[in-house]
Write a structure and sequence with these properties.
This protein is an alpha+beta fold and 397 residues long. It contains twelve helices and 19 strands. Helix 4 packs across helix 5. Belongs to the PDGF/VEGF growth factor family.
């Protein structure tokens, strides 16, 4: 009999070490698929302070807050609302930086209280060992730790990942006798939120590219219209690209933090051009337009500044040759003059003469009239004499 009781006890303990199964929590939902859980929601388990909570909930605001703190440390005088630093943060970033009402402390404290972790619970001994129907225990309940709490998503459940055995001294009683016994209970030491169902493969689609936006106007749009930060106009609500949440002043101010075509650099905490252009990359004679983030040419120089035969080209931002030359007379970029490809010297090397009118070489006619050549020869106008037929090749041309 005691062997049977021991086997039942071992089986009971083994089941307890694996925690509660999903079917025990949600019976009759075998076909239900667990929703997909984002990585950001899983990160809630790692939040330990207010800064981490703000960074998780508002990553862009957290970056602005960091930059505001850095700029505050660089300046010896307090920041004023008219400063450029405060011009960034209207209306939300500055509030995050100055927030001291303890709101996030309360939220963080509640998260830590309810997160999945080992919790002290009261267990009834008779329910932990239901096979001992003839025994009564004193005390009737014991205190151990079991996993409990809330996970960050309904598709997860809290379960134990490690455990120990806690021995409790109890008084075991029957109708006729009683004795002091040592009973082992499973004590959970660490917990984790796991998926209720195995995760399925997910097709991840590329996120839409970040759009450049305009700051909202000082005068609100008329009734029925909303500010579209992409077209910089007031448009009907049903034609706007952004959702209602993104069109709120809070989100719009964040999107327009640095203005169109610019992003906030995390290292320097400065607004830089999204295309990567800087003053140095524009080159000499060019300047970077901060509004459009394009390299613009400096003011056109006074007349007569360019050298002779040259003109000012605003697109190239420099002096270029103004002559247009024919194909036979290419342009000399140093002198900006049309020059012939051939010259008397090059024509002489070919046994020809130079024609200055059309910049070409020509051959003089033979002085002797055409004479008949013997068999196996032909008359060549290049050398003005008869040469063998086998010499008819390209080298004479």
């Amino acid at each position: 009999m005691w062997m049977l009781s021991l086997a039942v006890w071992i089986l009971n303990v083994t089941n307890l070490t694996h925690g509660y199964d999903y079917d025990e929590y949600y019976p009759g939902e075998e076909e239900t698929k667990a929703p997909l859980v984002g990585e950001g929601l899983r990160d809630l388990d790692t939040v330990s302070n207010v800064d981490e909570l703000v960074e998780l909930l508002y990553p862009e605001y957290s970056l602005v807050q960091h930059c505001l703190r850095r700029k505050t440390q660089r300046t010896s005088t307090p920041l004023h609302p008219e400063d450029d630093v405060w011009a960034w943060g209207k209306p939300r970033e500055g509030a995050l930086y100055k927030s001291d009402d303890g709101t996030f402390d309360v939220i963080l404290e509640e998260i830590q209280r309810t997160m999945c972790s080992p919790r002290e619970v009261c267990l009834e001994v008779s329910k932990e060992y239901p096979e001992s129907t003839r025994h009564f225990y004193m005390p009737r309940c014991v205190s151990v730790h079991r996993c409990g709490g809330c996970c960050t998503h309904e598709g997860l459940y809290c379960t134990n990942t490690s455990h120990t055995y806690s021995n409790k001294t109890l008084l075991e009683m029957t109708h006729r006798e009683h004795s002091v016994v040592m009973v082992a209970f499973v004590n959970h030491t660490s917990c984790e939120c796991l998926s209720k169902r195995p995760q399925h493969s997910v097709i991840r689609r590329a996120a839409a590219a970040h759009l450049t936006v305009c700051s909202p106007p000082d005068v609100p749009c008329s009734t029925g219209l909303v500010w579209d930060p992409t077209s910089c106009l007031c448009v009907p609500m049903d034609t706007s690209f952004f959702s209602e949440r993104e069109l709120e002043p809070l989100e719009s101010a964040l999107l327009a933090l640095c203005g169109p075509n610019k992003v906030l650099d995390e290292d320097s905490c400065e607004c830089v051009c999204e295309n990567g252009l800087t003053e140095a990359s524009c080159g000499p004679g060019w300047r970077l337009d901060q509004a459009s983030c394009e390299c613009l040419c400096e003011d056109q120089p006074a007349p007569g500044t360019c050298p002779p035969n040259q003109r000012w080209d605003p697109e190239l931002c420099g002096c270029v040759c103004q002559s247009e030359c024919p194909r036979s007379q290419p342009l000399n970029p140093e002198t900006c003059l049309c020059q012939c490809r051939d010259s008397p010297q090059t024509c002489l090397l070919e046994g020809k003469r130079f024609n200055a009118h059309n910049c070409s070489c020509y051959r003089l006619p033979c002085r002797k009239p055409h004479n008949s050549c013997p068999t196996g020869f032909y008359y060549s106008h290049y050398v003005c004499q008869c040469i063998p037929n086998h010499m008819r090749s390209g080298e004479w041309n």
